[in-house]
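Attaching the record inline, Q. Sequence:
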Amino acid sequence: MSDATHRILLVDDDINVLKALRRVLSLTPCVAGNQRFKLAIEAYDSPHAALAMAHERSYDLVLSDYRMPGMDGTEFLTAFRALQPHAARLILSGNADLNGLIKAINEVGIQRFIAKPWNDYELVSAVAHALALRDVTLENERLADLARLASGHITPQEIELKRLELEEPGITHVEWDTDGSVLLIDPLQYKEPPL
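Structure, as predicted:
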C-alpha cells in the first residue's frame, strides 16, 4: 500500500498551527518500517466544517486539537468516528487534561496523544505508524472477509458494501421517510448502525 496516497484531515481552531502541521507533514518523509506514505493533507479551523467534509470524503487519518471553541476534540472525534470508524485518530493538545485524555482514549479510541509544542520527527513518526497500523488492520479484515466468504458466512455483496463504505462514508446508510424521500442526518446525531 505504499504507492497509495493517504488522505489526512487536520483540525485546529488556530490557523497558524494548521499551517505548521501542514508544512511539517508536507516536507518531512512519512516513513514507518519500509513503508513510505504519500500524504494528501486537508486542514480545517472548524470541527463542524471538517465533519461536513467527512460526509463527502473518506480520510485515512485525522489529527484533531483537543481544545476548540464550540466542540472539543473528543466530541469532534466521536462524531467523526461514527462517520469513518476505520480512520486512525490522533489528538493534539497544549494542555495535559488527564480526564479528557482518558475519555479520548476510552471513548474515541485515539491511537496517540501528541503534546504541543510537538517534536517534528515524533509527529511525523506518529502519523506514519498510525497509518501503517490502519493499513495492516484493514488488510487483516479483508483477509478475514475472504475466509468468511469461502466458508459461506458472508456474501460477495456484503464485502462490496464494506468496500464502498470505506471509500465513501455513509453511502450504504440511507434513511427513507414514509413518502419515499431521503432523510438527511445531522452528522453530530449520526450513530453507526450495528453490523
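Confidence is low (pLDDT under 50) at residues 190-195. The radius of gyration is 18 Å.

More tomorrow.
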